[in-house]
Structures are given as C-alpha cells and as structure tokens.
Write a structure and sequence with these properties.
about 40% helix; 5 helices; two-stranded antiparallel ribbon
Length: about 140
C-alpha cells in the first residue's frame, strides 16, 4: 500500500509562505486569518508596482532623475522620530482607528490639542502624539 501524496498547497498558502524566520511572530500569528479572509483582498501586483515606484527615481522631462514624490506627512498631528517608535505608533494608530466612531445623533468624541478642537481621526492621532510627548 502506497502513501498518498500530500495535497499541494493552495495558491493563497503558497503566497503567504515565509521565506525567512518571523522574528516578531506577527506574520505567523495572523496567517490563518489572512488565509481565511473572504471579504478583503489585496492586489499584490499593484502593491509591488507602488513599492517599486516609491524607491525608484523618476525620469523628468529634461531626462534627469529625481526621487518619487511622497505625500506630505501631516506632522502637526502625527508622531515621527525616524525610529522603530514611529512604526509602533502607526500600528497603534491603525489598530485604534475605529474607536472614535459615534452613534447616530450622538456627539463625536473630541479633544483639544495645542488650542485646536479636533474630532475623528485627527483627534485620535493628536491624542496619541500627545501621549508620546507627555511620556
């Protein structure tokens, strides 16, 4: 009696195969969720094109190269120190990005930051920035 061959991995499973160790454990711990997702999908070729565009210089009409223009970073409300703390701050910001939604006909959550009344996303970003500023 021969042993049956294992079923080939699905295209999704092959796409999410790790080529290097997952030092943080994030990719490993979220893999099952990503593979089971049905309502959300990612356009991987578009992501790769965007990544190449962001790192590759553009040709100007005069034939010279210049760096791709990145969108402005709204530094007034966002924290940035050029370190891993910025990445952690952004992950927290994105993880909490639903917390300020208000119920219908209810006042929106708001804060005062540097004399400015903010609500919604900008209030969230400014509140987190203030938390970093105040330690």
């Amino acid at each position: 009696m021969s042993n049956p061959k294992p079923a080939p991995a699905s295209p999704s499973a092959q796409l999410f195969a790790l080529e290097q160790p997952d030092a943080s454990g994030v990719l490993t711990s979220t893999r099952a969720v990503v593979l089971a997702a049905r309502a959300v999908s990612l356009d991987y070729p578009a992501i790769q094109r965007l990544a190449r565009k962001l790192v590759a210089p553009e040709q100007t009409p005069a034939g010279t190269e210049q760096a791709s223009a990145l969108p402005d970073w709204p530094a007034h409300y966002h924290f940035f120190d050029g370190s891993e703390r910025t990445v952690n701050w952004l992950l927290l910001l994105d993880a909490l990005n639903f917390c300020f939604w208000s119920e219908k006909n209810q006042p929106r959550w708001q804060i005062v930051y540097q004399g400015e009344v903010l609500n919604g996303y900008w209030a969230e970003a400014a509140a987190l920035r203030r938390a970093v500023e105040e330690g």
